[in-house]
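pasting for ref. prot 1 ->
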Amino acid sequence: MLGVDRIEAYVSEARNRVRDSRARLEVGDACTLTWSSATCDVTVSGLVLNFVPDSDAMAREMVRVTRPGGKVAAYVWDYAGGMQMLRHFWDVAVELNPGDSRVDQAERFPLCQPDPLEQLFRRAGLISVSVRAIDVPTVFRDFEDYWRPFLGKQGAAPTYLASLPGGTRDRIRDVLKARLVATADGSIAMTARAWAVQGTATPNPSLHRTRSGGLRPPSRATGR
């Protein structure tokens, strides 16, 4: 989980980049939103759902703040296969270090698949739930362009790589370089897949309670 200082740094950076006066950025707990019930037309979680300690509590909160008939949606990376940049890395890392399979994001985040996502939204009381893939082409100029992000020490894979002895890091790099097939110009083409789930909120008095002192957001709110 991110520390408070890093979260505040991300929010500060986002505030500097977002110039639209209609946007408002706040730091809060996704499992205990401060907004009043049934006040959002659309509530969306972007690449967050699998990181919270209680995804069911977060989904229920998203439903609570959404008006009946409004949309609740989320998207997460397909760590098991479709997020190819990471999948190639973890396949090699676990092959060379079998005891480290527990840190593979596919193992850590079983939620990030169509059936678990659909069941999560149905448990939250949503109807007309659907899941679809979002595929984004990711083309790297060469192997170094692919490898460089893993050296940043931020995120699960870079943090894991930084924890390894230098010789082990080099072996992972060498095996990856030998396996990744480049085109004639040296570029490496991959796909980044996210699973997106959406559902429709229905009237539910047990969920649509009002929090004392809650903030009233704009008619359209997006949770990231």
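and prot 2 ->
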Amino acid sequence: MTKYNLGLVQLINPEIHGSYYKYSDWLNTHYLTVESNIDINEFYSDTLLDDVKLLNNDASEWASNYEINNNKELLHPCIRNYKNIISKLNGVNLEIVETIMINSYPIDESNVQISVSIKKTFWLKILQRKWKKYYKKKLSFMKNLKNLYYREIHGKYPPLNVF
């Protein structure tokens, strides 16, 4: 079994998730595991998308109800644009994650295990950005008139030096 799996994750906010997270800045910067070990059949079905939409709608409704009832803006202790993240309906995401269990000791000293996820999809996003940049440079190189003329004469493009 691999240590990475598909899971639904949500940013931890002590106002939403309770007092266990109130006194730990380290915990507040991580993601709470909503659901993990999603199998491949569930991934390819539309029920997972419905679950994500439902969870995102619930989170945005909860945030707006919180602001109405408490007459103050919903803030996060560590993330400044938390309200924008929730309002764009991407608060709960399907990600490739590594799930770890953490023992948390809140005020009453009872042992509570919290499932925290560490996102691994940011590596894919970095790779996509690098590839887009490389591909854009390659296309502009191939459309350059000087390089097209070189190809016409020699049958191939001059060496591409993007690095």
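The first helix runs from residue 14 to 17.
The chain has a mean pLDDT of 80.
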